[in-house]
Write a structure and sequence with these properties.
With 97 residues, the protein is mainly alpha-helical. Helices cover 67% and strands 0% of the residues. It is globular.
Length: 97
């Protein structure tokens, strides 16, 4: 769990206890998925333009880029995407407990 805690702390996300207890998400099962390049790229590919704009703005990345450029930019900041991906999974209701 310390690896997960370090990842979340590095990107200023809530601690693992928040995700595990308050949101009832099984981080140990979820985080290995986002660490895989193919899963992360698939997730980025499915973000719509507005979602990418919001993620880029939150990460203080250029938001005036075209959608294709935003996707490439997001692929370059993969470690910072963890809390956004977790919230997306929570919102979709597809989280293991």
């Amino acid at each position: 769990m310390s690896n997960i805690a370090e990842t979340l702390a590095r990107v200023n996300a809530p601690p693992p206890e928040f995700w595990e207890n308050d949101l009832e998400m099984g981080l140990g099962l979820l985080l290995p998925e986002i660490e895989r390049d193919d899963a992360r790229n698939d997730w980025i590919a499915h973000l719509n333009g507005r979602q990418m704009e919001m993620v880029c703005a939150a990460l203080q990345l250029p938001v005036e880029e075209r959608v294709r450029e935003r996707r490439e930019t997001l692929r370059g900041v993969n470690g910072q995407l963890v809390p956004f991906w977790l919230m997306d999974r929570f919102g979709a209701g597809s989280v293991p407990i």
